[in-house]
Amino acid sequence: xKKIGFIGLxxxxxxxxxxxxxxxxxxxxxxxxxxxxxxxxxxxGEIVSSxxxxxxxxxxxLTSLPSVKAVxxxxxGEGGLINNANPGKPLVDTSTVSPELNVEISEVxxxxxLDFLAAPVSxxxxxxxxxxxxxxxxxxxxTYEQVLPVLQVVGENIFHxxxxxDSGTTVKLINNLLIGFYTAGVSEALQLANKKNLxxxxxxxxxxxxxxxSRIYERNYKSFIAKDDYxxxxxxxxxxxxxxxxxxxxxxxxxxxxxxxxxxALYQAVEQEGYGEQDMAVLYEQVKKxxxx
Length: 293
Ligand code: NAD
What we know:
The chain has 293 residues and is of the alpha/beta class. Helix content is 56%, strand content 13%. It has 14 helices and 9 strands. The chain has a 6-stranded parallel sheet with strand order 3-2-1-4-5-6, sandwiched between helices. A 3-stranded mixed sheet has the order 7-8-9. α9 crosses α11 and α9 (167-195) crosses α14. The longest helix is centred in the middle third of the chain and has 29 residues, at 167-195. The chain binds nicotinamide-adenine-dinucleotide. Residues 7-13, 30-33, 36, 64-66, 70, 73-74, 95-96, 121-122, 124-125, 233-234, 238 line the site of nicotinamide-adenine-dinucleotide.
């Protein structure tokens, strides 16, 4: 499979598709945002103007979309993938959406004899650029094996979690619940350092070799807090979305997670303050504003 359709050329989709171009694949890209399509064109991809054209020209289609609404539209909408797809052209959604939506799309695909895999990714923009993402795929093993060579280009650690379509999403939501905690932890702990006039670079050097170390501390501090620049990255509103899905998953499984619930409320409040489009690391700035008594 050398002709790959890619729908959603944002912070993740653009570097993922660029990595595939570098590996010799022909990418047929589609995005509602013209700037995103121009960036793919610059990287050597072909741009088309509808989902139907993506399907027509591709042997396999990947999607990286920001919301349930966008995934519903692209897969289930009138001009969407399922109405245009043909058996033998697998559809792989790398977005993080609700487990229910994975199941809904999978059921419709089964009726139409289409192969579908829900394969969310982790590792952020840097992982997409370096082609080192972790992929957590749920769905038929046969489809997974068929698309594995392509997943191995975008990522380094590729897992087939289970035949259950939403199994990869479950793993991903657990991952992002932890990201939510780490980001909040870093945001508060560093206020104590500020209050005690510690040098944050020196603190990082010490904690990076201590148990306080985490990849999220490194990411949030080095790439955002230290630079005082919160261009995403991974926007705070996308993390809030994932925390909502994680809480729904807990509710659906009769699980009470009160600390996680207050974590979600924190991100929801910060998004309402207008920080949603910035990287999740911006939580540090909001906590900074509120923590001084
Ligand atoms: P993004 O908002 O940067 O990009 C999404 C792209 O999809 C945008 O270019 C947008 O124009 C396009 N789009 C939206 N609706 C569309 C439609 N109907 N048809 C065609 N294009 C459409 O988001 P992102 O950060 O790239 O994230 C994409 C997905 O990957 C999300 O589900 C997110 O949760 C997940 N994810 C993101 C990261 C990260 O670090 N950014 C990491 C892992 C997973």
